[in-house]
Amino acid sequence: MTYAGEHFSSTITEKMIMINDQQIYTWTSRNRLMIVDVFESLDDADWNAPTLCSGWTVRHMAAHLAQPMIVSFPRFFFTAMRYRGDTNKTVDHFTRRLARTPPTQLITLLREHATDKVSPPRVGPMGPFAETCLHLRDIARPLGLTVDVPIEHWRTLLDYLVSPAVVPALAPAGRLNGLTLAATDTDWVTGHGPEVRGPIEALVMAAAGRPAAVADLQGPGLHTLESLLTTH
Q1: 175-229 per-position pLDDT tens digit
Q2: Residue 102's domain spans which residues?
Q3: Same domain, yes or no: 176 and 198
Q4: Which of 27, 33, 54, 209 has the largest count of CB atoms under 10 Å?
């Protein structure tokens, strides 16, 4: 199915309704277990390797993925007050504290909580689901690993990122304005303007602010996308 022109918003909304919260929870759990398997395969050097999230190593990423399951919302909220409501600083605070946990314990925590149903304010189940898709590749890309989530997960996430429902934490408003996005490995296209095309994983990673994914994309809209990533 393709999404284009004036039917874009309504078609995406209908598709997102079809994929209900329970399906998102199920996919999230499976992705968490996939990520845990990756962590278990890494050596000490890999755990200290950088990810696509600036300033975070693989160990930080493991801690970050565990945070929503073991840090309650009230605790997160009151800590955020110390940072004047800055969510990014609050997340970094908990990530760095939890990263002091030995890797084996982080792996155990993640496996034990893989089926937890987490629904943060504003983003709901899509937030943790998006993180499993994006952060798996944030880890895998720098390490040269091919492990990836199913293509349907990327389709669902990209539907969300280009919809009016997306929250700024995942894709700032306006980042993808004036572009046509076209996946080359599945039937997915939407938008208006110069085209950016490539594997849907790379489209999502770029849409979510990962400049490293731009190298896997092509098309007349690529320069505009690079500028938008810098601006936003």
Answers
A1: 788 899 999 999 999 999 999 999 999 999 999 999 999 999 999 999 999 988 8
A2: 22-152
A3: yes
A4: 27
Using a pLDDT cut of 70, give the percent of the chain over it: 90
| Residues 174 and 139 both lie in one domain | no
Measured over all CA atoms, what is the biggest interatomic distance in the chain, rounded to whole angstroms?
A: 51
Regarding whether 123 and 40 lie in a shared domain, the answer is yes
Instruction: Round to whole Å and give the CA distance between 123 and 98.
Output: 23
- The span from the CA of 116 to the CA of 100, in Å, is 23
- The DSSP line for 107-160 is HHHHHHTTT-----TTTTTHHHHHHHHHHHHHHHHHHT------HHHHHHHHHH
Domains in the chain, number? 2
Q: Tell me, what amino acid is at 59?
A: R
- Do 147 and 158 lie in one domain? The reply is no
